[in-house]
Known about the structure:
The chain is mostly helical. The chain is globular, with a radius of gyration of 22 Å. The chain has helices at residues 8-21, 24-48, 51-68, 75-85, 89-120, 128-134, 138-154, 158-206, 208-216, 222-256, 260-275, 278-293, 298-325, 327-334, 343-359, 361-369, 373-398, 400-427. The protein has 18 helices and no strands. It has one domain (10-427).
Amino acid sequence: MTKKIPSPISRMRDELKTAVQRGLFHISGSMAASRIFRFFSAFIVVRVLSKALFGQFSYAQNILQFFLIFNGFGVSTAIVQFCSEKKTIEEKIPYLRYGIKIGLIFNFFLVLSILFYTSFFELPVNGSSEILLYMCLMPLLILMSEIIGSYLLSVFRNRQYSYLNILSTVLYFAGTIAGGLFFLVKGIIAGRYLAFLIVVVVELYVIRKELRLIWSARSPLKQDRKEFLKFSFVVTLTNSISQFLYLIDIFFIGLIIKDESVVAAYKTATMIPFALAFLPQSIMLFLYPYFARNIKNKQKNKKLFYKVQGYMIILNLGISLILIVFAPLVIKIIFGPQYSDSVLPFRILSFGFFVSACFRIIPGNVLASLRKVKINLYTGIITGTLNIILDIILIKKMGSVGAAIATTSMFILDALITNIYLYYFFKK
């Protein structure tokens, strides 16, 4: 009797069932809820604030994100990597302790940098400097939340990670709405502070057993600390350049055009395409520990990588086409007719989302999990440099449309480099 070979659809169903049992839908569902709630909070902020005030707030947020590019010196990613590679809790805890120590020290100086910047420099968009000053303590709360989440992922406590992510999202949404409706920008910032503070307290309670071990644990050995810092340093540089691609557009629009209305229009164009990055990001949050755990099994990781990429192409192609075709309707319904100048950059960035989601975010995370972080760094340096050049040239000539073209072009270049490298890496 010949053994029946399962059909592709049957295999896909079985793989999906296994992933769901291990927490894939918990992670992707929580991230989807997070993006949806945060999007609606941003939508309400757009409606509550005047276009000029929203432009000021958006620019201040954008500058804060520049500082957060270096958040914690990359220890959150390093914790996922090094803790995932270790088998026992006793082996993982020293890395968690060391990551908390390094991250908090680094972010303390990050806070001081923001205070210094807002004290001695004035942002080109009027009113943004004061708003940035109010947000200066955010890096400390955001880091602690990220570190605890990274640890939970590394020990495959995906459901707890997801529930905490949903809690964070709901509190963030409630704080933004309540604060914005009654106290405008200052209320929004205060509401978000309160949301992050509550989440960190709850997260510490969730890992209360580990807290005792963290307190008494020793730091990793000198060589291990060196490897940890080396990894986190490269990750920080890489992430800084990667996030740079998302942030530099608004920075240069404000610097070159100096019009808060144009900043606001481009910001609205980015909201949906950039928010949808949660799809590949949630998949990689779930899969990253598996890639890291099988770091020495090249064939297993190769098979998993191409399988995931194939599924994401099918999913994201449909999403991108819908956004591009119905762009005018989407902008009008969600943001209002006053943002009609966002339609063309929205369409360009929707295509950029497809490229990034399928061919940039997934291979970039796989390379990091295989400790090939230098490839991501070199790619980031190339694309980041070219993006600055293109932004300066295209924003002067085409405004926000030029910014969208520059970012999408760099997504394509990044995707080409990383995918070609992985192809030859797996082929060896």
